[in-house]
Specification:
The structure is a single chain. A hairpin with a 2-residue loop joins β3 (64-68) and β4 (71-75). α8 runs antiparallel to α9 (220-236). This protein has 13 helices and 7 strands. The strands form 2 sheets. The chain has a 4-stranded parallel beta sheet with strand order 2-1-5-7. Helix content is 45%, strand content 9%. The model has no long low-confidence stretch (mean pLDDT 96). The protein starts with 10 loop residues before the first strand and ends in an 18-residue tail after the last helix. By secondary structure, the chain is of the alpha/beta class.
């Protein structure tokens, strides 16, 4: 199964303050309960604090993003102590050394680690639009656009949390596939395992990825590169109840010849109740897994959609 990946083999980058390291400007930390107590039970973290790494002390004066004309620098509020180049260089260094990472959790709003919506100021100290990207985080994301990335604050949203975890397991599955020696057959098999996962996120991508694999005039290397970029972009799109219900209905079709009238009606009712927001996704999925045990379907049993990550994370109970 997809979620059988061992904790010691699943490495996630993370801002050091989020797992309790007292490295913030005021010598404090910003522990994430989800990252430490829940996700941390299933992954191995590699922590980074770019501000400390480039030589800033603990504690230290605050730094911020300052926009002068069209250039953004990272420095103290008065413009001194510019560490923009140092943070960017460290980001490039970490990116080159951590190709094995399967995801990254950044500290929100940080001028070095913020993934998005970082506050930007004018040289005079006036707040401008909050549209900055952390100087360190920017280099990590640029070096590997397919790497699943999120911020600690956004992970408080159950849907975003589930989406992120599903993506890191999918990406690790891909990394294992590549490490084993990629072939066209392996790529096709991998895609077949993610058929319903992609369907639940983006039907357009579902069709395009299928067409990509049917292409005969593309090298395996280019096909693989294009495929994983398309897959991870599709999975980043949050699946809606309507899309999930559509996917569940497709899966239901595999049991149409086996289920009794009352069983078929019960599954239809569960899917419809989920679509209407009356029950969580966990409910119809549990019934489908029950029928899968009664009426084994090899193709379905290998679908990442049914078990994308460890059940202990209970991520499909909340939506």
């Amino acid at each position: 199964m997809i979620h059988s990946i061992d904790k010691k083999d699943l490495h996630i980058g993370i801002s050091a303050c989020l797992i309790g390291e007292k490295v913030r400007f005021d010598a404090s930390n910003k522990p994430s309960n989800f990252c430490i107590k829940e996700l941390g039970q299933h992954v191995t973290y590699k922590s980074f604090c770019p501000e400390v790494a480039v030589g800033l002390p603990i504690p230290r004066p605050t730094i911020r993003q300052i926009k002068t004309d069209n250039l953004i620098s990272v420095a103290r509020p008065d413009g001194t102590g510019d560490v923009t180049e140092a943070l960017s260089a460290y980001g490039k260094k970490v990116a080159s050394m951590t190709k094995h990472l399967s995801g990254y959790v950044f500290c929100a709003k940080s001028p070095s680690c913020g993934m998005e919506r970082v506050k930007v100021y004018s040289p005079e100290g006036n707040a401008l639009a909050s549209d900055g990207i952390g100087a360190f985080a920017k280099e990590i994301m640029l070096a590997n656009p397919s790497l699943p990335c999120e911020e600690n604050g956004r992970l408080n949203d159950p849907l975003i949390r589930e989406n992120f975890v599903a993506r890191i397991y999918a990406y690790k599955h891909w990394q294992n596939l590549v490490a084993s020696g990629l072939t066209k057959h392996k790529l096709t098999t991998f895609h077949s395992q993610y058929k319903y996962t992609v369907m639940s996120h983006d039907l357009v991508a579902y069709k395009k990825l299928g067409q990509l694999l049917a292409s005969a005039d593309m090298s395996l290397e280019l096909m693989a590169e294009t495929y994983i970029a398309g897959l991870m972009a599709a999975l980043k799109i949050k699946a809606t109840r309507k899309m999930h219900a559509n996917t569940l209905a497709h899966i239901q079709g595999y049991f149409s010849k086996h289920l009794k009238s009352n069983e078929r009606q019960e599954l239809c009712q569960q899917i419809d109740a989920y679509r209407k927001g009356l029950i969580p996704l966990f409910a119809p999925l549990t019934l489908i897994k029950h029928y899968l045990l009664q009426y084994p379907k090899d193709y379905l049993s290998k679908q990442a959609y049914l078990s994308p990550y460890p059940d202990e994370l209970r991520l499909r109970y909340a939506y």
